[in-house]
Write a structure and sequence with these properties.
Blueprint lengths: L2 H13 L7 H27 L13 H4 L3 E2 L5 E2 L4 H17 L7 H10 L9 H14 L5 H19 L11 H11 L9 E3 L6 H11 L8 H10 E5 L2 H13 L8 E3 L16 E6 L24 H13 E12 H5 L3 H12 E8 L13 E8 L5 E6 L21 H7 L15 E5 H39 L6 H36 L20 H39 L1
Parallel strand pairs: 3-4, 3-6, 4-5, 6-7, 8-10
Antiparallel strand pairs: 1-2, 7-9, 8-9, 10-11
Helix pairs in contact: 1-6, 2-6, 2-11, 4-6, 5-11, 8-9, 12-14, 16-17
Length: about 575
């Protein structure tokens, strides 16, 4: 039986257990058991390399001493704990001890603590748990190099199952996306470039980064190069199940002590607690979008960046706190960020002023189905200089596709066209060519034109506000002058004067707001990055609803043209009759 079939059969066993309810619980149950199995086999490797190795686990709680099947005198493999005693052992000894392990004792203890502090044993049947253990014992041999390779495939199957497990699907980014983004970001092992995913989920981007680093090793690479990979990978995850999956994923990818995968809410950390030493060279992430943080989270963000929408909060943090000067980032964001205004407009102004957003890959609908069908974008930017030119590339469906789905996901080979088009960053992508899929926007010129057009209105607004402030100062001075004055007639006269000044000030404030709004209407549209492809072939739709909308739009344009002609004709005739009357 192959590994994939083994995982399916394990899940079938769990379905018979009354304590396990739903895919998410089955995956959570399987993952903590898989973690202990894999960790035990990694410990065997570490013991071979170091005779003085000491396990962070109590001896009786190591997988080999309670779960692993042992051969009897006849060579027949049998369980060490009987089915009738197994559930009590797991619930009363294994979990309580691992949940209370002291994270301060070392990085490995910290990993185990974070894995088990919110994990649960859902199984109630000892015989069913023994059956699961037996399957794992038969199928998982981490020492077998071929089996280790196939474990990656098993892990992908678990992630695929998780993708369909209700809201848990938010943790999954298609492998083709993670690989393409990491390969394009190109973190450099020789330069010891750090890689962070601040919303790492199950570790798809980080495992892709590890694979990318491993491909940079050669016969000349030393042991220090291999050890460096572990220190260069960093991740943070808020929720228990994806963190557990990510930690196991890191073990499967050769990270001995994945202590750099922290279980915490990245957004829950105080804004000013981040320091420069924590900034990274490369950041790659798919921040959760469409959700909102609890009240109080992000309350200390700067006023103009204050929001509770998760993706927006991550973008503010990435730009201001997480990325080094000259650092590179690749981020997945929905269309809503691209065309949104308000706080999203402010974030895009910050992004384009402090970073060079050099490339946007526009993905079609369905890439993240079934979790969401909305269109998404891959943003590639560098910290340190403002944006001048933005290149857009519209990723097409493969021939014959109308959408992606769980059975027809996006594939890495589809990005070969983008890779061939990409060019070199060190010459500002001078080799890139526009096409039916690619186009560029001269953002620097757009911004200069918008600022020039908006400036007279903003200057007028500032002048009007200054005039209003001067009148309000006069009102305060007059109010002060009344202190100690008891003459009713005099007080009435001054108060009437104050009321007149306040009315003038209010009028000026309203005019100032109108002038500011007029300038804003000219300026802020440049931050609508929902750019349509000007080079795309026009597709004629035969959808009745689309045709009806076009017909209504055309009627409106005709009516507007007729009204304009009537106005111009009336003005011309009025001028004619006026001239005749004067004659």
């Amino acid at each position: 039986m192959n590994l994939s079939s083994t995982i399916k059969s394990i899940q079938d066993i769990m379905r018979k257990d009354d304590g396990v309810d739903g895919d998410a619980q089955r995956i959570g149950q399987l993952t903590w058991m898989l973690f202990l199995k894999v960790f035990d086999q990694r410990e065997e490797e570490w013991e071979d390399d170091d005779n003085d190795y000491q396990s962070p686990l109590p001896e009786n709680l190591r997988w080999r001493n309670w779960a692993a099947y042992k051969s009897d005198e006849q060579g027949k493999k049998k369980p060490q704990i009987q089915a009738s005693e197994l559930i009590a052992f797991v619930n009363n000894q294994l979990f309580p001890t691992l949940k209370e392990i002291d994270a301060a004792d070392g990085p490995t203890q910290k990993v185990i603590k974070q894995v088990f502090e919110d994990s649960n044993n859902y199984m109630k049947s000892g015989p069913q748990m023994l059956a699961v253990i037996e399957k794992l014992e038969e199928a998982i041999n981490f020492h077998d190099f071929k089996a280790r390779i196939h474990l990656g495939d098993v892990y992908e199957q678990l992630l695929s199952d998780l993708r369909g497990a209700g809201n848990a699907g938010e943790f999954y980014t298609p492998r083709a996306i993670t690989q393409f983004m990491v390969q394009t970001l190109n973190p450099n092992l020789a330069k010891r470039e750090t890689v962070l995913d601040p919303a790492c989920g199950t570790g798809g981007f980080l495992s892709a980064a590890i694979d990318h680093f491993l491909r940079q090793l050669s016969d000349k690479s030393g042991s220090d190069d291999k050890r460096a990979i572990e220190d260069l990978i960093r991740g943070m995850e808020k929720k228990q199940l994806p963190h557990l999956l990510c930690t196991t994923n890191m073990l499967l990818h050769g990270i001995e002590v994945p202590s750099q995968i922290e279980r915490r809410n990245t957004l829950g950390r105080a804004w000013n607690d981040w320091n420069a030493n924590e900034k990274v060279d490369c950041l790659v992430t798919n921040p959760p979008f469409g959700g909102y943080e609890d009240d109080g989270v992000g309350s200390d963000y700067p006023g103009d960046l204050k929001t509770r929408e998760t993706a927006d909060m991550f973008m503010a943090l990435i730009i201001k706190k997480l990325l080094k000067e000259d650092g590179r980032a690749a981020v997945v964001l929905p269309d809503g960020f691209m065309f949104g205004d308000g706080i999203k407009g402010k974030l895009k102004e910050l992004l384009l002023s402090e970073c060079n957003l050099h490339t946007v890959i526009r993905l079609p609908k369905g890439v993240f189905a079934p979790y969401t069908t909305i269109k998404t974008n891959l943003l590639f930017f560098n910290k340190g200089k403002p944006t001048e030119t933005i290149w857009f590339y519209e990723h097409p469906y493969p021939s014959g596709y109308k959408s992606y789905s769980k059975t027809k996901p996006i594939r890495l080979e589809e990005f070969e066209a983008e890779k061939a088009w990409w060019g070199k960053e060190d010459n500002d992508f001078a080799d890139r060519m526009e096409s039916e899929l690619a186009w560029k926007v001269d953002f620097k010129t757009l911004k200069q034109q918008a600022e020039a057009a908006a400036k007279p209105h903003w200057d007028k607004s500032e002048d009007l506000n200054n005039q209003a402030a001067a009148l309000e100062n006069q009102v305060r001075d007059l109010r002060t002058s009344l202190t100690g004055i008891n003459d009713a007639e005099y007080r009435k006269k001054v108060e009437e004067q104050m009321a007149g000044l306040r009315e003038q000030a209010d009028t000026l404030r309203l005019a100032a707001r109108d002038a500011q709004a007029a300038g804003d209407r000219l300026y802020w549209p440049i931050y609508n990055l929902d750019m349509k492809n000007p080079n795309a072939a026009v597709e004629e739709s035969h959808d009745p609803d689309v045709l009806l909308d076009k017909y209504k739009t055309l009627l409106g344009e005709i009516e507007e043209t007729e009204n304009l002609l009537k106005s111009e004709l009336a003005a011309a005739l009025a001028h004619h009759f006026t001239a005749e009357a004067e004659a």
